[in-house]
Amino acid sequence: MAAEATAKFQNPEFRPDFRPEISPAMTSHDGLHFWQFMIAGSIAGSVEHMAMFPVDTVKTHMQALGSCPIKSVSVTHAFRSILQTEGPSAFYRGIAAMGIGAGPAHAVYFSIYEVCKKYLSGDNPNNSMAHAMSGVCATVASDAVLTPMDMVKQRLQLGSNAYKGVWDCVKRVLREEGFGAFYASYRTTVLMNAPFTAVHFATYEATKRALMEVSPESATDERLIVHATAGAAAGALAAAVTTPLDVVKTQLQCQGICGCDRFKSGSIGDVIRVIVKKDGYKGLMRGWIPRMLFHAPAAAICWSTYEASKVFFQELNGNKNSGTVT
């Protein structure tokens, strides 16, 4: 009887249905628990957004049409205008809102991605379609968490006189515009981030795999460079192709603030028509340079931090394969 039981567990086709926490599928997935993916993602997202926040501020100013202070699409002009009119601290206005939202949102983002990737990839870890679909699932969930604080962050970025701070903005928006204002851009955000994350994750996984194949013998020693390079490439490409929807998102989140247009409906088509009418089709690409300058290093920081956190947890769990680049 003992020999028969042993043979079953040695059979690679045998998968026990009970006690899933010790199933081979779970232990083979980077050797981490769900909550560890959440913590790693939270750390990575917070570090990413805090480090790159000034660039995000420049991008927001460039994308906000209307009678807002900055009209030019020049990154240099935008940077100088903010610095001269409001001072260095203006580049960090709204960072508290992002600090509140980034951690929880990225915890959801990466944990959902890892779970979906595990089940959608099946026996093929190089399935780019599975990576893309996993990214879409992750962004739909994480955007529901981040969108309200992202709206607050962008309104604070545009001017020091409109609101006294994060909680003043939250209270006034609730009182004057209602709860729906926090999610006015959610549909646009999802429509933007779905292709963004699809391109981002597929590019990241493919680039990482290609870099590892170039020098597999040193992949372990150079994994930080691999993750950072793959992340930068993925972030830059995804940012470039989704800039028009990011402009629409900024318009919806900042409407009525600092002289920006207020829209009768949250229709993406209406916003696009207003942008094209006022600034031509080039208006849909406003801020694409700082957007790429944000997402390339941000993704490099995010992925390298995330993978480093995963290695920490692997070593904490006593995973003998913690040295493997994942």
Please outline the helices and strands.
Elements: H1 2-10, H2 24-27, H3 34-51, H4 53-63, H5 75-86, H6 95-121, H7 128-158, H8 166-176, H9 186-214, H10 223-241, H11 243-253, H12 268-279, H13 288-316
Question: Quick check: average pLDDT?
Answer: 79
Radius of gyration: 22 Å
Give the class from helix and strand content and strand pairing: mainly alpha
Q: SSE order, as H and E?
A: HHHHHHHHHHHHH
| Poorly predicted residue ranges | 5-10, 12-28, 67-72, 320-326
- Hey, roughly how much beta strand do the residues contain? under 5%
Major sheet, described briefly? none
- Percent in helix: 55-70%
Measured between the Cα atoms of the first and last residue, the distance is: 39 Å
Number of helices: 13
Instruction: Tell how many strands the DSSP assignment holds.
Output: 0
Indicate the overall shape.
globular
Kindly describe this structure:
The chain is mainly alpha-helical and 326 residues long. 68% of the residues lie in helices and 0% in strands. Helix 4 (53-63) runs antiparallel to helix 13 and helix 9 (186-214) runs antiparallel to helix 11 (243-253).
Brief description of this entry?
This protein is mostly helical and 326 residues long.
Give a quick set of tags describing it.
single chain; 326 residues; mainly alpha; 0% strand; globular
